UniProtKB/TrEMBL annotation:
It comes from Acinetobacter baumannii (strain 1295743). Keywords: Membrane, Transmembrane, Transmembrane helix. It comes from the Bacteria. The chain crosses the membrane at residues 14-38. This is Nitrate ABC transporter, permease domain protein.
Length: 66
């Protein structure tokens, strides 16, 4: 197997370091916030056991925070 035995320059180290952080973050941002890439239709079927998120009290809750 072959490999590159010489060391990277400081500039290339910096570029690879920044790229290894920024590329995944940019991909995550694109998938999370751009609806034309991936936009699942999520329906909450069970909101848990708190009473302020029940179907009957949700309109009252919305009105009280306005």
């Amino acid at each position: 197997m072959g490999y590159v035995a010489r060391e990277l320059s400081q500039r290339n180290k910096l570029l690879f370091g920044l790229g290894s952080f920024l590329i995944p973050v940019l991909i995550w941002c694109a998938v999370s916030y751009l609806p034309f890439i991936w936009h699942p239709q999520v329906q909450i079927a069970d909101s848990g056991s708190v009473n302020y998120l029940q179907a009957q009290t949700f309109p009252c809750y919305c009105n009280s925070i306005r």
